[in-house]
């Protein structure tokens, strides 16, 4: 039986620009996930809104 990982949805990280795949812990909030890791979330680019 083939591994199902290639069929998972992917996104591009808003901080580093790398692609990342869906994770089970993000099942309920997948639409809100923007960053691939805690490090990228903490070092996200500064907001342009005042």
Verbal overview:
This protein starts with 9 loop residues before the first strand and ends in an 8-residue tail after the last helix. The protein is an alpha+beta fold and 50 residues long. A two-stranded antiparallel sheet has the order 1-2. It is built from 1 helix and 2 strands; from the N terminus they run E-E-H.
List strands and helices in order, with pairings.
Blueprint: E1 10-12, E2 19-21, H1 38-42
Antiparallel strand pairs: 1-2
Could you list some keywords that capture this structure?
single chain; 50 residues; alpha+beta; 1 helix; 12% strand
Q: Approximately how much beta-strand content do the residues carry?
A: 5-15%
The major β-sheet equals:
2 strands, antiparallel
Mean pLDDT: 86
What's the SSE pattern?
Answer: EEH
Q: Which structural class is indicated by helix and strand composition?
A: alpha+beta
User: Helical segment tally?
Assistant: 1
Fraction of helical residues? 10-25%
Q: How big is the Rg?
A: 13 Å
Low-confidence stretches: none
Q: Care to count the β-strands? A: 2
- Physical arrangement of strands within the biggest beta sheet: 1-2
- Please tell me what the overall shape is: elongated
Rounded to the nearest angstrom, the distance between the terminal CA atoms is: 53 Å
In short:
Helix content is 10%, strand content 12%.
């Amino acid at each position: 039986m083939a591994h199902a990982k290639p069929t998972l949805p992917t996104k591009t990280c808003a901080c580093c620009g790398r692609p990342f795949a869906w994770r089970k812990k993000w099942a309920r909030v997948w639409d809100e996930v923007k960053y691939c890791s805690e490090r990228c979330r903490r070092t996200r680019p500064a907001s342009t809104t005042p």
